[in-house]
Fold this sequence. Notes:
CATH architecture of the largest domain: 3-Layer(aba) Sandwich
CATH class of the largest domain: Alpha Beta
Number of domains: 2
Radius of gyration: 23 Å
Order of helices and strands: HHHEEHEHEEEEHEHEHEHEEH
Strand order of the largest sheet: 4-3-5-12-6
CATH topology of the largest domain: D-Maltodextrin-Binding Protein, domain 2
Distance between the termini: 73 Å
Low-confidence stretches: 134-139, 309-313
Helix content: 40-55%
Largest sheet: 5 strands, mixed
Number of helices: 10
Number of strands: 12
Amino acid sequence: MTASIASLRSFLEVSRSLSFTRAAETLHLTQSAVSKQVQMLEQHLGFPLFRRSRGALTLTAAGTAYLSHAAEALAALTEGEALARELAGDKDSGWVLELSASPAFAAHWLVSRLPDFLAAYPGTSLRMRPRLPDISPVTERFDLEIRLGAGRWPNARATYLLGREMALVASPELLKGRRIRSAADLAGLPQLQRAQRGYDWREWTAGAVPSLGASQGPELLFEGFSVLIPAVLAGCGLAICPIFMVLDDLRSGRLVRPLGECRPSRYAYHAVVPSGARSNSARDRLLDWMTMQSQATARNLQRYLSGEHSNLE
């Protein structure tokens, strides 16, 4: 006798959230139904998968060991069912994709382009969760992850998407009344800091304008581009941003590059697939589509850059 698909799904969702309540909400089931499925799986296996103490839920050592195999088994079953349905002529074959993406990448680039992908593959069910990989629970498993980094992760295959170009950006309102001829003309303006690694002031000033000193105002620290970019648009200060993420704002004039520079970044956004991951046609379709979309954005970015000249030339 093998574990049921319903039990595996309940186990995996509880493992991700470490909460029967949140797992029930995601699965559109009652909490008692999810709890019963997990209990049935534990009875089938003959050992507990979770440790329940003082309201906290954690995986046991056995549960952690079982997790990756259960995820692979369910992915294989889901893939097989979808493929069989597609070959049988079922247009609603139900491709299911688990995708994690940095909140800023999702909000400022991916989400606005998703209708194109969903129209091309109407049978796809997409579950996208915003995640910062450095602080994501180790129990989470995704078909595809959008990560910010140097492009090398252990036991994973990374495909470059976007983000190797960065620049100093600001709101025109912040610069009103200033004639910007050099970095010295920006002295005294607030410098907005980003909490995560990558696109930081130290890397930018070392390669671009070492003469630009540190901000003399209060520290303004933001948890990621999803809140940093709105702060720049609101005129809170200067910031270093990946150009692709603010390309529409630069073209419309909502933001400007006061120094007209473009600097290479050590970090960029990549699509990451775990090494040895099972074949997944839906994931491969999304990755191919995302690669083509990123290449189109890169071409638009280069056209934008070639049409402008640095103020420092």
